[in-house]
Amino acid sequence: MKTLANVINHPTFITDYDIFLFKEGNNYNLYNKLGSHITELNGARGTHFAVWAPNAEYVSVIGDFNAWNKQSHPLNVRWDESGIWDGFIPNLKENTLYKYNIVSKVNNYKVEKGDPFAFKWETPPKTASIVSGLEYEWNDAEWLKDREKRNSLDSPMSIYELHIGSWKRIPEEGNRPLNYRELAIELAQYLKETGFTHVEFMPVMEHPFYGSWGYQTTGYFAPTSRYGSPQDFMYLVDYLHQNDIGVILDWVPSHFPGDEFGLHFFDGTHLYEHEDKRKGYHPDWDSYIFNYGRNEVKSFLISSAQFWLDKYHIDSLRVDAVASMIYLDYSRNEGEWIPNDQGGNENTEAINLLRELNKSSYINYPGIQTIAEESTAWPMVSKPTDIGGLGFGMKWNMGWMNDTLQYFEKDPIHRKYHHNMLTFSMIYAFNENFVLSLSHDEVVYGKGSLLNKMPGDEWQKASNLRALYGYMFGHPGKKLLFMGGEFGQSSEWDHEKSLDWHELENPLNAGVKKWVSDINKFYKNEPALYEIDFSAEGFEWRNANDDESSIISFIRKSKTNSDVILVVCNFTPVVRDSCKIYLPSSGYWKECLNSDALIYGGSGVGNAGGVETIIDNNTEGQDYIDICLPPLGVLFFKYKPEMA
Q: CA-to-CA distance for 454 and 450, rounded, in angstroms?
């Protein structure tokens, strides 16, 4: 059966130089050449197809255009030993469904595969790729011009982590999620209201199993079609940029699922993954690990990362599960892994890939950031590659998260015995460029919501949560909070339903949201809270050792030292009528924020807007303030020399 003309060679679409870089592992724009592309040949419009399948005996394009006929449109294997099969099909238009029919040289294995480079896929559970262009008229030039400043390490970064399918749903329409364009309008307004600077989307790349939250990726070059088209997702990013909101994407190079239509066993061999399961299979996630040492796979992965920076104007990539990549024995028992050439457990191939990914991304896309989710003490994750680092811009601070949540889960009467959980993070706080993350991982699988981790009655839970956020925003490091946490959702996250927005009718939940909004806005306006996040020069303990009272206090400073913020935390429900804090500057200290204020649902204990320092004649001229600490409260004071 022939519904169209035969497949035609298009010798100029993929050049010899493209192939040279691909085989060398340095072609980071493969998405411009592999996959399906609407183009012209000899004046005729059509689609060029190219797929890497070096162990195939036969490859053809099948789809709705030829009634899925496996014989009518065969591709030609290139002469250059690249293993790429390609060809041009005239008159084949956008939105055509297709797959690759592959017959392997090995055991006559036959399979129908989606396109690894497809820009668009059918909505799951359907699995065909779709011919799609990426034309879109962007309107975010102003954002991109200033992005380097907004994304820099000395700028404020308060990140709202979000799962698109469960942020907000429409009950009147079968409880469907918002689509990309609907989300753009509502999310931009909400983020401006609550004061976040960036949004981090859990993986939007196409994935067959919704319950994987996107972390089992099959479409490394396509936003999931569950919520719209590629252009619809571009609109979402564009609209957020126009509203001064940065966009971070989760990206998953650590593993991929074994669905037959996907990357696994692609051409009848373990093409993308290691053949030996001790290196190529991930037991925790029942998924497959990329062969990071294969040059063509390296080109594929780095091309995927830079595709989102290029075509979708993404500002930052958060790289998932870095620890599982860099350790050969990650989550494996003895005998279940293979040491490297030096006998160690470091995955040198993955390390080299990450370094090249980071180095090339920062060179090619100035102003972006890469962020590692790395849960171990691997050194210099966020240090430059030329001094031996992995080259990430930042790293999630998993140690701070674990210690802090363990501390806050304890009844306040016992917190004095665990005071070091609050202070220990400052021993290593400047070893890396840290993001303080309270992510989705902390509110799933029976862990409960952040609110319900807090001890006490309803009022104390809300007060503890406000105190947690106050401490977090005072502590050095960029900030990340998962959706629902900003208003103290009481139930843990469920990806099958919307957030519990109705809880905002409760004054305590509304108070938590008001506190987060106000602290976000204060944070963005105070250089002392963000300019020196990654150096000890910007931090100074005032009192780290009052374990008996569960009180800590510290100072944050700006680059010029012209802005000084004092943070004081009382993590017991007892009002402290008199708390002396010695300070480096005499004069007036304005109480700018109080988590116990009535507008947040607190008891209203405070310091009447500020305090004057008191001269202590028993010291060498150092002055102090004597303040009242509210129960389960965090106070932010700013030094105001002009009011002295």
A: 7
Residues whose CB falls within 8 Å of the CB of residue 570, separated by 6 or more in sequence, listed in order: 467, 549, 550, 551, 576, 579, 629, 630, 631, 632, 633, 634
3-state secondary structure of 622: coil
- Annotated catalytic, 286? no
Show the 3-state SS of 370-403.
EEECCCCCCCCCCCCHHHCCCCCCEEECHHHHHH
Same domain for 614 and 553: yes
The CA distance from 604 to 631, in Å, is: 10
Residue 356 scores a pLDDT above 50: yes
Output the pLDDT for position 621.
Answer: 60
Tell me the per-residue pLDDT of 426-464, one tens digit each, with 9 for 90 and over: 999 999 999 999 999 999 999 999 999 999 999 999 999
pTM score, whole prediction: 0.96
For residue 75, give its domain range. 16-130
Q: Which of 320, 349, 442, 526 is catalytic?
A: 320
Bridge partners of 205, per DSSP, are 223
Domains identified in the chain, total number: 3
Among left, alpha and beta (phi > 0; psi -120 to 50; other), residue 269 is beta
Active-site choice (140, 267, 373, 486): 373
Our answer to whether residue 320 is catalytic in this structure is: yes
Query: Are 92 and 219 found together in one domain?
Result: no
Same domain, 243 and 111: no
pLDDT at residue 642, as a whole number? 66
Beta carbons within 10 angstroms of residue 16's beta carbon: 10
Q: Is the pLDDT of residue 573 over 50?
A: yes
Query: In this predicted structure, what is the pLDDT of residue 1?
Result: 36
How far apart (Å, rounded) are the C-alpha atoms in residues 613 and 588? Answer: 6
